[in-house]
Design a protein that fits this description.
The protein has 253 residues and is of the alpha/beta class. The protein contains seven helices and ten strands.
Length: 253
C-alpha cells in the first residue's frame, strides 16, 4: 500500500480517519534532550528540540492531530518534560491533555515504550475512557504525505489480525553490513529484492491490546510505504532542520 502523493505539513490536508473505537493520539516532546545530544541518533546537539517551545516545529504535528478530533471519539495528549512546551500547547485551547513529566521520568531513565504507555494510562484516568487504539505522532517528522494517517487506520480496520500499522520507506540497491572488525560484507539478496526501513515517527498506530502485551509493534505489523523523500526529514538532525527551514514561506513551519 502506498501513501498518497502531495506535500502537506504534518497532514494538514489529510482526510480525517474514522477511528477504531476510542482513540488516543499521543505527541511526545522530549525537551530534556536539548544540549545533550539526541539520544545517540547522530551524536550532535538536537537543534530541533531547541525550537519546540516556540511552536516553530511542533505546531504542524499538533494541527495534524487536532484535525482528527471532529471525526470520532478521539483524545489528544501531549507528554513533555518542558514547562515552555506545555504552556505553548495549552495556549492553543484545543482540548489537549498535558502530562508534564518530572526529572525522574525523563526518557533517558525510561524506555520509549514506558513513556507512551504511561501517557496512555494517565489519559484514560483523566478522560474516564478505555482506549482501543493508540496513534503516535512524533514532532520530529513534520512532513507527512496526504492521507498517511487515514491509510494507517484503514489498514487496521480492514485487517483485524494486525496489531500495528507503521510507515516504512523502501531501500533499493545493494546493502552492506559491518562485522565486529569493521569489515563490510554485502547482504546477499535475490535480484530485485527491496528492503523496508521503519519510520515510526511519521505514523505509528497500534491496538491497545498490543501495548497491553508490552510491545509497540506486536507480532503482526502492517506497512504503509512512503516513497516521498521529503517526508523522511528528521528534525533531530541539524541537516534535517536546515532542509525543513527551506520550506519556510511554502509550508507553515
Amino acid at each position: 500500500m502506498n501513501s498518497s502523493s502531495g506535500l502537506s505539513p504534518s497532514g494538514l490536508n489529510d482526510p480525517c480517519f474514522v477511528p477504531l473505537g476510542p482513540t488516543v493520539i499521543i505527541v511526545p516532546a522530549r525537551a530534556g534532550d536539548v544540549g545533550q545530544g539526541d539520544g545517540g541518533k547522530s551524536g550532535e546537539e538536537s537543534f530541533f528540540l531547541a525550537d519546540l517551545a516556540s511552536g516553530r516545529v511542533i505546531d504542524p504535528t499538533l494541527a495534524s492531530a487536532e484535525r482528527q478530533v471532529a471525526r470520532g471519539d478521539i483524545t489528544l495528549i501531549l507528554t513533555t518534560d518542558s514547562d515552555a512546551i506545555a504552556d505553548h500547547v495549552a495556549a492553543r485551547q484545543a482540548g489537549w491533555l498535558i502530562r508534564k513529566r518530572g526529572q525522574e521520568e525523563s526518557e533517558r531513565g525510561n524506555s520509549y515504550f514506558a513513556v507512551l504507555d504511561t501517557a496512555r494510562r494517565w489519559a484514560e484516568e483523566q478522560s474516564g475512557k478505555t482506549f482501543s487504539t493508540i496513534l503516535v505522532l512524533e514532532p520530529s517528522h513534520p512532513f507527512r504525505p496526504v492521507g498517511l494517517i487515514t491509510e494507517a487506520a484503514d489498514l487496521l480496520a480492514h485487517n483485524p489480525a494486525l496489531d500495528t500499522a507503521v510507515s516504512v520507506v523502501p531501500e533499493y540497491g545493494n546493502l552492506w553490513v559491518a562485522d565486529s572488525y569493521g569489515h563490510l560484507d554485502r547482504i546477499q539478496t535475490r535480484e530485485g529484492s527491496v528492503f523496508y526501513r521503519e519510520i515510526a515517527g511519521l505514523t505509528l498506530m497500534m491496538r491497545a491490546s498490543c501495548m497491553d502485551r508490552g510491545s509497540l509493534m506486536g507480532q503482526d505489523v502492517g506497512f504503509i510505504v512512503v516513497e516521498e523523500q521529503w517526508a523522511l526529514i528528521d528534525l533531530h538532525e541539524p541537516s534535517g532542520l536546515a532542509m525543513a527551514r527551506r520550506f519556510e514561506g511554502v509550508l507553515d513551519l
